[in-house]
Design a protein that fits this description.
This protein has 2 domains: about 35-160 and about 335-380, D-Maltodextrin-Binding Protein, domain 2 (3-Layer(aba) Sandwich); about 160-335 and about 410-469, 3-Layer(aba) Sandwich (D-Maltodextrin-Binding Protein, domain 2), CATH 3.40.190. It has helices at about 1-25, 60-75, 90-100, 110-120, 125-130, 140-145, 170-175, 180-185, 190-200, 220-230, 250-265, 305-315, 345-355, 360-365, 425-440, 450-469, and strands at about 45-50, 80-85, 105-110, 150, 150-155, 155, 160, 165-170, 210-215, 235-240, 245, 270, 295-300, 320, 330-335, 335-340, 415. By secondary structure, the chain is an alpha/beta fold. It has 16 helices and 17 strands.
Length: about 475
């Protein structure tokens, strides 16, 4: 009996030792892969891959993901995809460092450079594009470019997202103003028209029966503020010269002045961003619009369902319109998507899954129900499958919604996030500046000239330090 016990103990000890070796060294089988394939290579997607999704999901967005995976595995029957939802971003970062992250994982556009270039954790997808016959020219160009770093494609975006406005149609009708969507169809929905509407819709302080403010926007949120920074013809950065231009570019000054003026003129309720300062209200010159209902509010497609249902619960007629055209038309645009870990054991299947987002069938699956978004394939823009959950204005002119706003003016799209175009240390300074420039100027902390000079000097000194220090 003692001999049997000793044998069992030895087996258990050996098993434990083997397990420890696997835990400690098992991930060493991950080898960095630059995605380069032989000219005659024919990928054979098969086997298991794991996808990690770091955004919090509700049932609608989970259904969107699952429909995409189901469509993919229907085409590639030999691939098995395991999905982990609600994986914290810190866990993704730790998994990359320990080489235990999933074969495929989720990122937003601001993280591509860090993971691809700084950490060298992403597999380039270029060589698989041709192998899987992906037509990159069919993708909205602004969205495609957000997944490119130093000339190589690292990320496939799941949708096409740019800023729009939702608006209270009842207030527009009551003021006898022409519907903004009708103005847009005539190319008359401009910044000056928008300001005029805000002035006519904002009620006097002594009007206690109806409290309305023309608009409500988080002007310090980069996808909104970039419309002003670039929308008057300004160019606020030059990566070749490693400089930013705020005080030095008169067109940038003009745009940021417009952003400050619409608040100081009491035409818009300023919504502070996370970490940003607030506009002081309640004084004679700056009204407190906190209890006022806005006629216009900024939005993106993913909030359409909740915003629309809130309007309808209140019995309000509503619709969506494009952001007003600035003198040089710019619309803040962004996207999120998926990447392949450069240590994946199954690059064929992982690349096939990610790149399926750049196919019509992948977009139909991902964005064909509530929880999805706007397709990034240009040929699908006018299709009906993504126009949910409300009736399309094309089919019901009286009660339908203007889904056109979400695919309008792609030629005006510009990077909505500063991190997409500037080095992280510089982007941080500019982002903080945009979060606070309106309250700082309107509250009298700085003049516009002083604020712009300060951020320009700080950025350029930092940039010089990074490259010359």
């Amino acid at each position: 009996m003692d001999d049997i016990k000793m044998i069992i103990k030895k087996i258990l000890a050996f098993s434990l030792a083997a397990l420890m070796v696997f835990v400690l060294f098992g991930c060493s089988t991950y080898e960095p892969f630059d995605g380069q394939l032989p000219d005659d290579y024919i990928p054979q997607p098969a086997g298991k891959i794991k996808l990690q999704y770091s955004m919090t999901v509700d049932e609608a967005s989970k259904r969107s993901m699952n429909d995409w995976i189901a469509a993919f595995t229907q085409k590639y029957k030999d691939v098995n995809v395991t999905v982990e939802f609600n994986v914290p971003t810190d866990a993704i970062r730790a998994g990359v460092a320990s080489k235990t992250v999933g074969d495929v994982f989720f990122l937003d556009e601001t993280q591509v450079y860090d993971y691809a270039v700084v950490q060298q954790a992403l597999m380039p997808l270029d060589y698989y594009v041709e192998a899987y016959q992906i037509d990159l020219e069919s993708i909205f160009s602004a969205i495609l470019e957000m997944g490119v770093c130093e000339g190589r494609l690292y990320m496939a975006m799941r949708d096409y997202n740019h800023m729009c406005l939702n608006y209270n149609k009842d207030l527009i009708k009551a003021a006898n103003l022409e519907d903004p969507v009708d103005l847009e169809s005539k190319d008359e929905w401009t910044w000056e028209t928008f300001k005029s509407y805000c002035a006519q819709l904002t009620t006097d302080e002594d009007n206690t029966d109806s409290k309305v403010v023309g608009a409500s926007m988080p002007l310090g949120y980069a996808p909104v503020s970039v419309m002003f920074v670039e929308g008057w013809g300004g160019k606020y950065y030059d990566t070749a010269l490693k400089k930013v231009y705020f005080k030095s570019d008169k067109k940038v000054i003009e745009g940021i002045s417009e952003m400050c003026n619409i608040v100081s003129e009491n035409l818009l309720r300023y919504e502070p961003t996370n970490g940003g300062r607030s506009v002081q209200t309640g004084s004679k010159s700056r009204r407190d619009f906190s209890s006022y209902q806005p006629a216009f509010q900024s939005m993106v497609f993913i909030s359409l369902a909740s915003i629309g249902r809130d309007y309808e619960r209140k019995g309000i007629d509503w619709d969506v319109v494009s952001m007003p055209a600035t003198p040089v038309h710019k619309v803040g645009t962004g996207a999120t998507g998926f990447v392949v870990f450069n240590g994946t054991r199954n690059s064929d299947a992982a690349a096939a899954l990610v790149l399926s987002l750049y196919t019509p069938e992948g977009q139909r699956a991902y964005n064909g129900q509530e929880g999805g978004s706007v397709p990034n394939v240009k040929s699908l823009a006018d299709d009906s499958f993504w126009r949910v959950p409300f009736t399309d204005r094309r089919d019901d002119p009286d009660n339908g919604k203007n889904y056109y706003a979400f695919i309008s003016y792609p030629e005006a799209d510009t990077y909505g996030r500063i991190e997409c175009v500037l080095p992280p240390d510089i982007a941080k300074i500019v982002t903080e500046f945009l979060q606070n420039v309106v309250p700082d100027v309107v509250n009298g902390r700085f003049t516009i000239d002083d604020a712009l000079e300060k951020v320009e000097n700080e950025c350029n000194e930092k940039w010089n330090t990074l490259y010359d220090g």
